[in-house]
Amino acid sequence: MSKFKLVKEFFQYIKENKKLWLLPILIILGLFGAVILISQAPALAPLIYSLF
After folding, report:
1. Closest-CA residue to 31 (of 48, 8, 14)
2. Calpha distance 43→37 (Å, rounded)
3. Whole-model pTM?
4. Can you tell me the distance from the alpha carbon of 12 to that of 35, in angstroms, rounded to the nearest whole number?
């Protein structure tokens, strides 16, 4: 439950302090993290390699 609280507080910080430029950075980091996790699966690795 504390992980969700941390995320909620972070988004409140972004909203209150007008740090909206952080959102694209977080989205890109999240996408890279997802690609790394997906590429670890042996069945999906050829699909990831064909995309790049």
Report:
1. 48
2. 12
3. 0.59
4. 27
Say how far apart CA 20 and CA 25 lie, in whole Å. 10
Query: Which residue is listed with tokens 């050829």?
Result: 46
Give the residue carrying structure tokens 């890279």.
32
Full 3-state SS string of 1-52: CHHHHHHHHHHHHHHHCCCCCHHHHHHHHHHHHHHHHHHCCCCCHHHHHHHC
- Digit-by-digit pLDDT tens for the chain (52 residues) are 577 898 888 889 888 888 888 889 989 999 998 888 877 777 766 776 777 6
